[in-house]
Amino acid sequence: MTTNRPYITLLPSTDCDLGRWIQLHFKEPYIEHPHAPIFHILALKWYGFGKNDYPLLIDRPNFYPMIEKIFGLYQPEADAERSLLPDDPDLSKQIMDAQHYFRFTMGGGTVNWAYFHLLPHKNLTWKSFTTGVPWWETLTVAIAYAVIKYLMFKGLGLTLEVAEKGLVAVRAGFDKVDGLLANGRSFLYGDRLSIADLAFAASAAPMVLANGYGGFLPTVEQVPPEMRTVIEELRARPAGAYVQRLYDEYRLPLEAKAALGGD
Fold this sequence. Notes:
It is a single chain. The chain is of the alpha+beta class. The protein has two domains: 5-77, Glutaredoxin (3-Layer(aba) Sandwich); 94-259, Glutathione S-transferase Yfyf (Class Pi), Chain A, domain 2, CATH 1.20.1050. The chain is 60% helix and 8% strand. Strand 1 (5-10), helix 1 and strand 2 form a beta-alpha-beta unit. Helix 5 packs across helix 6. The longest helix has 30 residues, at 89-118.
C-alpha cells in the first residue's frame, strides 16, 4: 500500500494548489507540509533544492520538484478514466502548451496583481500564510510581517505598473478561455477534463476568489474596493464561472472523498 508522500508547499501558491489537485485526481495519497512565504525557501534548501523548486513531492529515495515532475510521475501510469491527456499527440501538445501558458503567462499576472493588492493587508493574507505551518513560522509572520511583505515586494519586483500589467495578462487569459467556451463545449480542449483545465482553474482561482482553492483566499466581502471591482468583473465572465464549476464538480468532491478516507 502506498504511504502518504510528503508534499512541501508554499501555502498560497497557485502551482501548489494545482499539485494538490493532480494528486487528488490520480488518487495518490500525500500529506502536505505547508510553509509561509520566505520559510518555504528554507524548507526547499533543506532538501537540496532551489527557491523556485516548489511544490516538492518526496517519494524516497526520489524527489519530484515542480508540477512538471509531479504530473510526469502520475500521468504515464494513468488509466483511460484518469488520464489528463488524450491519445492524440497533436492535441496533447496543444494541451501542454496551454497549461504552460495558463500557469506562467496568465498565472504570473495573477501572482503580481494579487500579491500587490493583498500584501498590504495582513488580515487578508494571514490564513493563507499561516494555516498549518510550523508554529515558529506563524510567530515570525505575526512579529515580522512588515519584513516579509518588504521581501516579497522586492523579490517579485512589485509596483503598481507591474500589477496592472499582470491584470492585462490575466484578462488576456480569460479572453482566451471565453473564446474556447463560446461554442458551448464542456472542456477547453477535447471532450474531457485535461491538465489544461486544471491549470487554468488553479491559476485563475485567486482572481475570482474561488471556493475550494487550497490556499485560503479571503472572501470578496473582505477585499478592498479596487480588488472587488476586478474580481466581480472576472466572476461574471464565462471563464470566471468555468473556474468555479471546475472546483465544484472536479475538486471539492475529491476533497470530500479524501477527508472520508474513500477512493
